[in-house]
Write a structure and sequence with these properties.
- The protein is built from 13 helices and two strands, in the order H-H-H-H-H-H-H-H-H-H-H-E-E-H-H.
- A hairpin with a 2-residue loop joins strand 1 and strand 2.
- Helix 1 packs antiparallel against helix 7 and helix 6 crosses helix 10.
- The longest helix has 31 residues.
Length: 281
């Protein structure tokens, strides 16, 4: 479960690999050598004209293999996946926003792009790949390489003058800092998720709003169950404590706990309430 959690956290950035270069050209600069060199770099990211051969497409294929691709196509649907934290969107969303104004952020975008290419496979994907069959080929399939010959003319343009070089360095440092903060936060999340109660608290927080509507008359531990659910977003532990002390859960005996079997079985009143999301194609 930790590997899947790590892989899913990478989705906003990995599915958009290189996409921040797509708005580079315009009618007024489409023949500029520097612009053409960036477009050549972008072409290598998206498979040079071959459908579904981009780095992002390769990542979606990997998510499909491990059953996590329910919200990946189109990528705008990723925002609907409640398993992905807001922090996972910060770096790619900032790069994409900057890319809509390439004239203002040209050097910073290329500096950030250089940082991500030097890093290669995201640290969280290295974690996700460990212990999985065929994991050794993840980097190759995602086409993760250090800046190659396509980067040489781009790199030369960034060193054209001191101001350009300094702005590119600013973008590099920003991306490096953002990636380090994100990786540290994700590491903390993965460490906490080793406790099954952590994942349960997340699940209850996600489904609490709907559940509060259907449990207005039921009480748990002397408190209205709907109240516990309404407060679950900020205090899921209160609900978990009440469940642990109830007849629905038998600590240490999951098979004998009504919450984990009879209530959610085919003929139970909570059938498919906690079913995993399905891919709609």
């Amino acid at each position: 479960m930790l590997a899947e959690r790590a892989a899913l956290a990478c989705a906003p950035l990995a599915t958009q690999s290189g996409a921040w270069l797509q708005w580079w050209s315009a009618p007024g600069n489409c023949e500029d050598p520097d612009v053409l060199s960036v477009l050549a770099l972008y072409a290598s990211d998206v498979g040079v004209g071959h459908p579904n051969a981009s780095r992002g497409s390769a990542y979606v294929a990997l998510l499909h293999e491990i059953g996590l691709d329910a919200y990946t196509e189109p990528t705008s649907r990723l925002a609907l996946d409640q398993r992905i934290a807001d922090r996972d969107f910060y770096l790619p969303s900032m790069l994409l926003a900057m890319s809509r104004h390439p004239n203002e952020f040209r050097q910073e975008i290329l500096g950030a792009d250089a940082c991500l290419r030097v890093i290669g496979l995201l640290p969280a994907l290295v974690v996700a790949a460990r212990g999985r069959s065929g994991a050794a080929g993840w980097a190759d399939r995602l086409r993760v390489v250090e800046p190659d010959s396509n980067w040489q003319p781009v790199w030369a343009s960034l060193r054209a003058n001191e101001e350009t070089a300094n702005r590119a360095a600013t973008g590099f440092r920003w991306a490096w800092g953002a990636l380090r903060r994100w990786s540290a936060d994700l590491y903390g999340d993965l460490s906490a998720a080793r406790d099954p109660g952590y994942a349960m608290a997340e699940l209850m927080s996600r489904r609490a709003r709907e559940g509060a509507v259907y449990h207005r008359r039921f009480k748990l531990g002397g408190r209205p169950f709907a109240e516990l659910l309404r407060n679950c977003h900020d205090d899921p532990q209160a609900l978990l404590n009440a469940l642990a002390a109830s007849k629905f859960v038998r600590p240490g005996h999951a098979d004998a706990s009504p919450l984990g079997n009879s209530l959610v079985m085919e003929r139970g009143p909570m059938f498919r309430v906690f079913a995993p999301p399905r891919t709609c194609r």
